[in-house]
Design goal:
There is one protein chain. Helix content is 52%, strand content 19%. It is an alpha+beta fold. The strands form two sheets. The chain has a five-stranded antiparallel β-sheet. Strands 6-8-7 form a three-stranded antiparallel β-sheet, with helices on one face. Helix 1 packs antiparallel against helix 2 and helix 5 (192-203) crosses helix 6 (240-257). It is elongated, with a radius of gyration of 32 Å.
C-alpha cells in the first residue's frame, strides 16, 4: 500500500472517529427512535385492526387502514431519526421525489395497479369470501392487495389478478356461491311435471347446494328427440365440480326412480322413390 493510499485510509478513519464522537449520542437516540417507531407502528396497527373488526368493517378496508397506519408511523420515525444522525431531510426528500418521478414513468403499469387497488378498497365491488368472475377466470377472493387480488378455487390454486384487469372490466360477483347450470332431456310422452318434481326433490338432498336460493327448474326447449329440462342451482364455489357431478348423478337417479326415460337422439329418414 503506497503513501497516498495510507493517507486516504487515515483521513477516512479520522472522519469516522470525528463523526462518532460528535454524533454518538444522536446515533443512539436515532436507533431508539427507529425501534420505538417500529414497535409503536406494530401495536397501533393491531389496535386499528381490532377496532375495525369491532365495528364489523370489511376485512379488506381493515387491513388497508392498519397497514397504512403502520407505514405512516415508521416513516415519521425515520424522518425524526435522520436529522439526529446529521442527515438533512430536505435534500433527501427532494431526491426521493425526483427518483419517484422517474420511477413512476418507468413503472406506469405497476402504478395503475396500485390506483386500481385503491379504487377496489374504497368502492368495494367485492370483499374477501366473495366469488368473482373476471377476465375468463373465477374463484373465491382470498386477499385484496394494492397491486393485485388473490383468488382460490376448488383445486386450491392461487390465481393472481393484477388490479388494473379488474377495475373497468365487466365483473361478476355471486357472493359465496357459483351458479350451476345443467340440462337433461326426457321423452316427449313423459310427464314433465313428475320429472321436474323428482329432480327437484333429489337435488334438495345434496349438501352444498344453496338453501337460501331456490333451485330454478323448467322446460328449456323442445329438441329434435326430447323435451329439454334446464336446472339452475347455486353451489359452493370451493366444491363446484364435485357438486356438479353429484347433481348429474342425482338427476339420473331421480328420472330412473320415476320411470322417466332419457331418449337417445333419433332421426327419421324417408326414402323417396
Amino acid at each position: 500500500m503506497g503513501q497516498e493510499e495510507l493517507e486516504q485510509v487515515s483521513e477516512l478513519y479520522n472522519m469516522l472517529v470525528t463523526y462518532l464522537v460528535n454524533y454518538s449520542f444522536q446515533i443512539f437516540g436515532a436507533v431508539v427512535v427507529l425501534i420505538l417507531g417500529a414497535f409503536v407502528g406494530r401495536r397501533v396497527s393491531n389496535l386499528v385492526l381490532a377496532l375495525c373488526a369491532k365495528k364489523s368493517l370489511d376485512i379488506t378496508l381493515s387491513r388497508f387502514f392498519a397497514s397504512s397506519t403502520r407505514i405512516a408511523i415508521i416513516v415519521a420515525a425515520v424522518l425524526i431519526a435522520l436529522p439526529k444522525m446529521g442527515i438533512q431531510v430536505t435534500p433527501f426528500i427532494a431526491a426521493v421525489g425526483a427518483l419517484g418521478l422517474g420511477a413512476g414513468l418507468a413503472v406506469q403499469g405497476l402504478l395503475s395497479n396500485y390506483g386500481a387497488g385503491l379504487s377496489i378498497i374504497f368502492t368495494r365491488p367485492f370483499v374477501v369470501g366473495d366469488t368473482i368472475r373476471v377476465e375468463g377466470v373465477f374463484g373465491v377472493v382470498k386477499e385484496v392487495h394494492l397491486a393485485y387480488t388473490l383468488l382460490t378455487n376448488e383445486d386450491e390454486e392461487l390465481i393472481i389478478i393484477p388490479n388494473k384487469h379488474i377495475v373497468g372490466e365487466i365483473l361478476h360477483n355471486s357472493q359465496t356461491d357459483t351458479v350451476l347450470e345443467l340440462s337433461v332431456g326426457v321423452a316427449y310422452d313423459s310427464d314433465t311435471d313428475a320429472a321436474i318434481a323428482a329432480i327437484t326433490a333429489k337435488l334438495a338432498e345434496i349438501d352444498g347446494l344453496s338453501q337460501d336460493r331456490a333451485i330454478q327448474i323448467g322446460i328449456d326447449e323442445f329438441g329434435d328427440s326430447s323435451i329439454n329440462i334446464a336446472i339452475r342451482a347455486w353451489a359452493k364455489t370451493e366444491r363446484f365440480h364435485q357438486l356438479r357431478f353429484a347433481a348429474n348423478h342425482a338427476i339420473k337417479n331421480a328420472l330412473s326412480e320415476a320411470n322417466i326415460s332419457i331418449p337417445f337422439p333419433q332421426r327419421e329418414v324417408r326414402m323417396l322413390s
